[in-house]
Write a sequence for this structure.
């Protein structure tokens, strides 16, 4: 009898480590074991269409991304930084206030 | 568009990360648009305070759009006023001055680039920024248009209609002037006392009720903030009584 053991698919994990604001630009640091994750800023973390950034960004190799809020009418609004994988599944999210450091 | 950073630039950028703007961009836009240099610096500081070329390029697109949409060039005055009418409000960058309208016991603002001299403005921003009453200053202004007032003779079209309007003597006819805040407060106190409320209720109870009811019905916090015209969500949170179940039932006892 012969048994073949294969390595299972690694669980992708991501944790938002830091959020900082410089004007209307949000800098996000993420701890993750995967590459190609996307970072977005949404008014409702569940809804992709509630994104308020000029463009969602892919995480850099250093685990950081920078997002610009396109419309300054959102300044002071409650929003969520969202990290998702290639399929759009949300891995982590954290609340923030647009333009204000916590 | 890119520029070479020397050692000092790099050191400054690392120490003042997010607070430096490129002067070549400031010069470019302050020549291109009819606004002071410090306004361009402010806008660039919000979006382009970085040494990363891709971040600067993305930020510049936004800044250019804002400058184009918010600065009024000669001949565009009526276009901006029409936009305010069609969409309800328009954001502009302009010199903001205020003066006292003693006849109506209120302040009015001037927006020179739109040739507007009688724009309604709340008292508080004028009190907080006395320079408005001297030579004025350049500001980002959200100009709202209220068509209802247009139907009243001599009404000011721009800015908000007061919630509680004053009456012309004892005629019962409402005019476009807001009721004095003390009178509004007294009226609410009188009516809530008549309705059987023992506590002191003021105008803010209505705000709290509206915001709480909206949030309980599944509304978003951001939209509640927008409807209440609050600058900060922290202010809106003060009016959120979703944890207080008694409040709504009690307020509904007021006969309207």
């Amino acid at each position: 009898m012969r048994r073949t053991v294969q390595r299972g698919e690694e669980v992708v994990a991501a944790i938002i480590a830091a959020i900082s604001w410089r004007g209307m630009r949000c800098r996000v640091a993420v701890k993750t074991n995967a590459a190609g994750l996307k970072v977005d800023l949404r008014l409702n973390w569940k809804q992709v269409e509630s994104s308020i950034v000029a463009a969602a960004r892919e995480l850099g190799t250093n685990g950081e991304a920078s997002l610009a809020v396109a419309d300054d009418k959102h300044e002071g609004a409650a929003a969520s930084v969202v990290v998702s994988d290639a399929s759009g599944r949300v891995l982590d999210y954290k609340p923030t206030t647009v333009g204000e450091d916590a | 568009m890119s520029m070479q950073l020397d050692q000092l630039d790099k050191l400054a950028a690392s120490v003042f990360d997010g607070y430096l703007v490129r002067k070549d961009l400031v010069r470019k836009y302050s020549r291109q648009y009819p606004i002071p240099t410090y306004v361009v610096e402010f806008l660039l500081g919000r979006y382009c305070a970085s040494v990363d070329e891709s971040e600067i390029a993305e930020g510049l697109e936004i800044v250019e759009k804002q400058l184009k949409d918010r600065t009024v060039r000669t001949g565009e005055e009526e276009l901006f006023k029409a936009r305010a009418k069609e969409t309800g409000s328009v954001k502009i960058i302009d010199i903001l001055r205020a003066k006292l309208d003693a006849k109506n016991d209120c302040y009015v603002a001037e927006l020179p680039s739109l040739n507007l001299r009688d724009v309604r403005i709340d008292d508080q921003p004028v009190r907080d920024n006395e320079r408005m009453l001297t030579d004025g200053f350049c500001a980002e202004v959200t100009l709202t248009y209220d068509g209802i007032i247009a139907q009243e003779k001599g009404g000011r079209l721009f800015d908000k209609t007061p919630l509680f309007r004053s009456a012309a003597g004892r005629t019962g006819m409402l005019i476009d002037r807001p009721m004095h805040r003390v009178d509004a407060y007294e009226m609410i106190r009188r009516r809530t006392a008549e309705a059987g409320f023992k506590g002191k209720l003021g105008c803010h109870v209505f705000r709290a009720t509206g915001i709480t009811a909206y949030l309980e019905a599944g509304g978003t916090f951001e939209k509640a903030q927008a409807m209440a015209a609050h600058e900060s969500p922290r202010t809106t949170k003060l009016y959120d009584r979703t944890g207080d179940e008694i409040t709504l039932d009690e307020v509904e006892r007021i006969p309207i």
